[in-house]
UniProtKB/TrEMBL annotation:
Protein name as it appears in the record: Peptidase M14
Organism annotation: Apibacter muscae
MF term (GO), any: zinc ion binding
Family listed: Belongs to the peptidase M14 family.
A single GO BP: proteolysis
Every Peptidase M14 domain range: 16-346
Entry-linked PROSITE patterns: PEPTIDASE_M14 (PS52035)
Family matches, as Pfam families: Peptidase_M14
Length: 389
């Protein structure tokens, strides 16, 4: 059996029942019941009583636990799990091998209450990924219950990161970032960490062929209350995935594809590699994640009608779901004003000294909506209108 990521990329199909970024918990749950009824097990309910499901595939003697969307507004992990589940359920040489080696437990959408209203935290305002020690949230209690139900050999903690993240030293967004979490303040490279680092090295080597220069390493600063850090401390090699921005892909369907391919790569290498820690040193060579992007930058904007004050405008989208809508919307706001020469943007526009005028003659301010004029240009929701009447 050979593993060729470029070939896999050509033939790989996403789960076509979902082609959105927003994922309604109800839609997900109906789908799981309709298509995977024999594989699912309700592990409990969220604070608001929404079901939380675990889906199990494979018959292997080793166990893998994957959980997604403990942060409600981070759907890529859940959607990618659905893609990977579809891939594994189809009869390929790779999927057979993985399912013979492992029993995989996917907890899909650990935070359905947050998912419904597109917020990071649970409905009581608790960040579930900072709740490991006290386990105040019902959702963390459920994750712990599953995690202690058997001996897990590997864990995947699946997240999304904001569009602000880039790859250090490159003018590229961090489409995927990975982390082998630390177990202590001194970030010691333990035997457990080496295993997850070794598997991340394999992902990096393979997925770099598909999206060169768009992969980074998430900070390994120790978060004593976080799940990954504590799982790794308990001796379960744990890999954190962060789905980030891909050019012109705000709905993250390309990111989702690479995230899914990365998950399959990790499962494949976990299957065929005898020593997961092999090549763990490569992990340290992956460029770090950096906060280096705005969504849009207008450069050389004339701010004052009295003085010759020129500056850059950094604009960032906030993501919102409106009641009754089936997809999120992006609301552009002014995030920074000044010298942004060290920052990149997913879209950069040279205003060539055009004068900024805001509605009602207001002065520029951080946090306001990005609706303004630059001389004759009309900027609406951050974008320059090309045609208007
Ligand atoms: Zn997250």
């Amino acid at each position: 059996m050979t593993f060729n990521i470029l070939e896999l990329d050509k033939t790989f199909e996403l789960e076509s029942n979902f082609n959105c970024r927003y994922l309604s918990p109800t839609k997900l749950h109906h789908f799981l019941i309709e298509y995977y009824d024999k594989h699912i097990d309700k592990i409990g309910c969220s604070e608001l009583g929404k079901p939380i499901y675990k889906l199990t595939l494979g018959n292997g003697s080793k166990n893998i636990l994957l959980w997604s969307q403990m942060h409600g507004n981070e759907t890529t992990g859940t959607l990618s799990c659905l893609d990977v589940i579809k891939f594994l359920a189809e009869d390929s040489a790779i999927s057979k091998k993985i399912l013979e080696a492992f029993t995989l437990d996917f907890i899909l959408m650990l935070n359905p209450d947050g998912a419904e209203i597109w917020t990071r935290r649970n409905i009581l305002g608790i960040d579930i990924n900072r709740d490991f020690l006290t386990s105040s949230s019902i959702e963390m209690q459920l994750l712990k219950k599953v995690a202690s139900s058997k001996k897990y050999d590997l864990a995947f903690n699946l997240h999304d990161q904001r569009t602000i993240f880039g790859v250090t030293g490159k003018k590229e967004p961090a489409t995927l970032a990975f982390l082998s979490p630390s177990e202590s303040e001194n970030r010691e490279i333990t035997e457990t960490r080496k295993k997850s680092m070794g598997l991340i090295a394999d992902i990096y080597k393979e997925i770099s062929q598909v999206i060169p220069n768009k992969i980074s390493r998430f900070t390994d600063e120790f978060y004593p209350r976080s799940v990954g850090d504590n799982f790794q401390k308990l001796g379960i090699p744990t890999i954190l995935f962060e789905g980030g921005h891909y050019p012109k892909d705000y709905f993250r369907q390309n990111t989702r594809r690479y995230f899914s391919l990365a998950l399959i790569t990790a499962l494949y290498y976990a299957t065929v590699k005898n020593n997961w820690e092999e090549n763990y040193e490569v992990y340290e060579t992956i460029p770090k994640n950096s906060t280096s992007f705005y969504d849009i930058i207008y450069r050389n904007v004339q701010l004052s009608s009295i003085n010759d004050t020129k500056a850059d405008l950094g604009i960032q989208y906030s993501e919102e779901i409106r009641k009754g809508d089936t997809e999120i919307i992006f609301v552009a706001k002014i995030e920074d004003i000044g010298d942004l020469s060290l920052m990149h943007a997913h879209k950069e526009i040279d205003a060539e000294g055009r004068y900024l005028s805001l509605p009602d003659g207001k002065l520029p301010k951080i946090g306001i909506l990005a609706d303004f004029k630059l001389d004759e240009w009309i900027i609406s929701n951050g974008k320059k209108l090309e045609h208007w009447v």
